[in-house]
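Translate structure to sequence.
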């Protein structure tokens, strides 16, 4: 029996070769069966269904799955490019497909394309055309072959970046010679929560109720501790296939919550890789029938929120004497705390409460190996006198273009006044 389509689990009808009523079927005589069984045993159509086709002795019916997995490479030079961009909310990913006449290796080989910005909250209806500029290419793990995912940013027809295009400003900062010379590295820890469809309650939780308290779930294993591992693993492999610099994954403190890490990535690449990984995660959860949320505090109460901790270093930080450079960077970050907080994600005030491994949103702090601080420095960095810092303030729904470029700007390009620098140094010295 060849399964054609299986969006949900329903009961199956089996036809055996031994049945006296069964007759041989040719490829012209096959039929598919779509049904759902009600309490009385009658069959009726349903939105939740499985479709089955009968396999005969003479031929096998091609399945929808076969077409989805079809390798078109031997038959055409054409490829499918999935153009991906960020919508009007600043967190929603949108995409559409087009045929390209041959495989490409660089975004410059791809044409610009337009979309209806009035349908994404990015343009008025009377002047709705927005132009996509291809910026980064990844292999498409869903279509395979030479097909690609294309990260784009958005411009007006006159060539001006639209207000939600955060990549444009980030690219300017990362192209500054001072920043280029320092080779900024980023390691981004993307946390996310999986929700049951319809009820919007975390995966694995009893509907309308709560599981046992936090403790056994972080990096846990077992049916009563780990919910959604298949999604995490599928995403991990899909990112590796795509060429995303994913470096690891783990179950998080709150059940139904997961994390993956991307990096080390240099400059603008960090934002491109995070957005591509988010798009892939959206597609995988779509296929699994599970809802993805990047809300920084999806469940109120005594539960961990979801962050996007951003590890950052420069060439000077990674070399001998780097610890002093790190402390100077922390001083600068303390002076621009409010600017960073305002750009670090919507709803972050619900997460940064000073509890659940966070610092208070109102107070800047730093410490060695302290996960309750705004900025954490690792024990190895302190011991070796060089390394990196971890900014623990960004929310899970932060824009990586904004966060990475702001870190580079504040620590490499922005110069505080001598007076404010001296006052901040005194305050931080008392805080440590």
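Result:
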């Amino acid at each position: 029996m060849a399964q054609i389509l299986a969006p949900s689990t329903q009961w199956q009808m089996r036809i055996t070769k031994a049945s006296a009523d069964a007759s041989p079927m040719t490829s012209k005589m096959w039929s598919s069966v779509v049904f759902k069984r009600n309490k009385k045993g009658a069959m009726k159509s349903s939105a939740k269904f499985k479709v089955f086709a009968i396999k005969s002795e003479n031929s096998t019916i091609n399945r929808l799955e076969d077409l989805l997995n079809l390798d078109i490479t031997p038959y055409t030079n054409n490829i499918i490019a999935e153009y991906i961009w960020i919508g009007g909310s600043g967190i929603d990913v949108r995409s559409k497909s087009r045929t390209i006449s041959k495989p490409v290796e660089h975004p410059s080989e791809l044409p610009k394309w337009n979309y209806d910005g009035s349908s994404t909250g990015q343009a008025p209806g009377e002047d709705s055309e927005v132009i996509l500029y291809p910026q980064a290419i990844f292999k498409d793990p869903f279509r395979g072959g030479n097909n690609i995912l294309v990260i784009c940013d958005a411009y007006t027809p006159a060539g001006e970046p639209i207000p939600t295009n955060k990549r444009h400003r980030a690219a300017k900062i990362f192209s500054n010679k001072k920043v280029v010379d320092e080779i900024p590295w980023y390691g981004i820890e993307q946390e996310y929560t999986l929700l049951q469809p319809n009820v919007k309650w975390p995966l694995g939780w009893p509907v309308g109720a709560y599981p046992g308290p936090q403790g056994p779930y972080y990096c846990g294993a077992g049916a009563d501790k780990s919910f959604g591992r298949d999604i995490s693993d599928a995403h991990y492999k899909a990112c590796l296939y795509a060429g995303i610099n994913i470096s690891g994954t783990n179950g998080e403190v709150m059940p139904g919550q997961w994390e993956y890490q991307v990096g080390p990535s240099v400059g603008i690449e960090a934002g491109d890789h995070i957005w591509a990984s988010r798009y892939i995660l959206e597609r995988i959860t779509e296929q699994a029938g599970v809802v993805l949320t990047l809300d920084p505090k999806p469940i109120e109460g005594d539960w961990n929120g979801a962050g996007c901790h951003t590890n950052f270093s420069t060439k000077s930080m990674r070399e001998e004497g780097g610890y002093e450079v790190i402390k100077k960077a922390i001083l600068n970050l303390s002076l621009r705390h409010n600017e960073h907080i305002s750009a670090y994600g919507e709803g972050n005030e619900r997460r940064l409460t000073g509890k659940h491994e966070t610092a208070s949103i109102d107070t800047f702090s730093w410490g060695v190996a302290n996960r309750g601080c705004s900025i954490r420095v690792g024990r190895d960095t302190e011991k070796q006198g060089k390394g990196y810092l971890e900014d623990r303030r960004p929310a899970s729904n932060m824009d990586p273009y904004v966060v990475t470029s702001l870190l580079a700007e504040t620590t490499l390009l922005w110069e505080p006044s001598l007076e404010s620098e001296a006052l901040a140094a005194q305050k931080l010295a008392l805080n440590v």
